[in-house]
């Protein structure tokens, strides 16, 4: 029963990832998806294998990696903003082949 | 999940996760979206605490709700004019996103509820790790020790710091 909010959260993340135009909004949707997967790991660890701790440690490392990934992505976004003065993905077509 | 307070707490956390995550992806203002994301992350921390993973809940609050949301707010302040709304979505993109997410939720929800006997499982006798045991596990090299990922994460974080500085500095 803990999986239901996680499922809804993942669905919202997919929806936001596809529909939003803003790069920061896309990153926020990505965080939602990562967070729902973390909940899944912890729930399966607690309910199916309560005497082991792999799910908890995996979530711990996933949180650290999510923090690192967000920091790099935001550095990229700020740099893009400095060059293009915009973070809208429709107008970032300079790299398009 | 035995006592009434626990059940009420679960429903509050689950409802706030669902409502605020929908609001996060549908609101027009990007700063509000970041704020709703913070509420979602705090409710997730409540769920971790409820499952007796105190350390994980504390990490969730400190790293996610404390660090990442502040980072988002900084980035939004740096790259947006205040008070400007996002553009309205185009129709076919909206339907595409709605179809993809609803399809995924439907398939996973069907799989979830066809195994619904798992839903009623209660948290078995609390075998929670105390802090010293957790630290020893994190730094041990024996079976089920996590020294190698720990060091890999530390190298990754260092590379990430350097990369962030190099990418975002003025030339």
What would you note in describing this structure?
The complex is a heterodimer of chains A (97) and B (171). Chain A has 97 residues and is an all-alpha fold. Chain A has one domain: Helix Hairpins (Orthogonal Bundle), CATH 1.10.287. Chain A is built from 3 helices and no strands. Chain A is elongated and about 50 Å long. Chain A starts with a helix and ends in a 13-residue tail after the last helix. Chain B is mainly α and 171 residues long. Chain B has 2 domains: 1-85, Four Helix Bundle (Hemerythrin (Met), subunit A) (Up-down Bundle); 130-171. Chain B is 73% helix and 0% strand. Chain B is built from 6 helices and no strands. Chain B has helices spanning 4-26, 30-50, 54-79, 91-114, 131-138, 147-168. The longest helix of chain B is centred in the middle third of the chain and has 26 residues, at 54-79. The relative contact order of chain B is 0.07. The mean pLDDT of chain B is 83. Classes of the chains: A mainly alpha (97), B mainly alpha (171). Chains A and B meet through helix 1, helix 2 and helix 3 of A and helix 1, helix 2, helix 3, helix 4 and helix 6 of B.
Write the layout of secondary structure elements.
The complex is a heterodimer of chains A (97) and B (171).
Chain A lengths: L2 H17 L3 H26 L5 H31 L13
Chain B lengths: L3 H23 L3 H21 L3 H26 L11 H24 L16 H8 L8 H22 L3
Helix pairs in contact in B: 1-2, 2-3
What are the key terms here?
heterodimer; A: 97 residues; mainly alpha; Helix Hairpins; 3 helices; 0% strand; elongated; B: 171 residues; Four Helix Bundle (Hemerythrin (Met), subunit A); 2 domains
Unreliable stretches of chain A: none
Largest sheet of chain B: none
Mean pLDDT of chain B: 83
Report mean pLDDT of chain A, rounded to a whole number: 85
Number of domains of chain B: 2
Structural class of chain A: mainly alpha
Distinct helical segment count of chain B:
6
Q: Give the C-level CATH assignment of chain A.
A: Mainly Alpha
């Amino acid at each position: 029963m803990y999986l239901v909010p996680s499922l809804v959260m993942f669905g919202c993340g997919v929806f936001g990832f596809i529909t939003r135009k803003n790069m920061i909004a896309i990153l926020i949707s990505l965080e939602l998806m990562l967070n729902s997967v973390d909940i899944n790991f912890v729930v399966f660890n607690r309910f199916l294998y309560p005497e082991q701790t792999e799910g908890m440690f995996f979530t711990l490392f996933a949180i650290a990696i999510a923090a690192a990934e967000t920091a790099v992505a935001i550095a990229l976004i700020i740099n893009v903003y400095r060059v293009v003065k915009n973070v809208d993905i429709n107008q970032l077509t300079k790299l398009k082949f | 999940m035995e006592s009434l307070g626990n059940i009420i707490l679960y429903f509050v956390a689950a409802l706030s996760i669902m409502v605020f995550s929908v609001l996060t992806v549908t609101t027009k203002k990007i700063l509000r979206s970041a704020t709703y994301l913070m509420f979602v992350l705090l409710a997730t921390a409540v769920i971790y605490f409820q499952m007796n993973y105190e350390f994980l809940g504390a990490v969730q609050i400190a790293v996610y709700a404390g660090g990442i949301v502040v980072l988002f707010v900084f980035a939004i302040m740096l790259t947006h004019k205040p008070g400007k709304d996002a553009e309205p979505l185009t129709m076919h993109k909206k339907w595409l996103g709605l179809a993809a997410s609803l399809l995924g939720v439907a398939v996973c929800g069907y799989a979830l509820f066809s195994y619904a006997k798992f839903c009623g499982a209660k948290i078995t006798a609390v075998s929670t790790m105390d802090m010293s045991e957790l630290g020893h596990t994190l730094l041990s090299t024996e079976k089920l020790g996590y020294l190698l990922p720990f060091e890999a994460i530390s190298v990754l974080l260092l590379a990430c710091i350097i990369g962030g500085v190099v990418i975002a500095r003025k030339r």
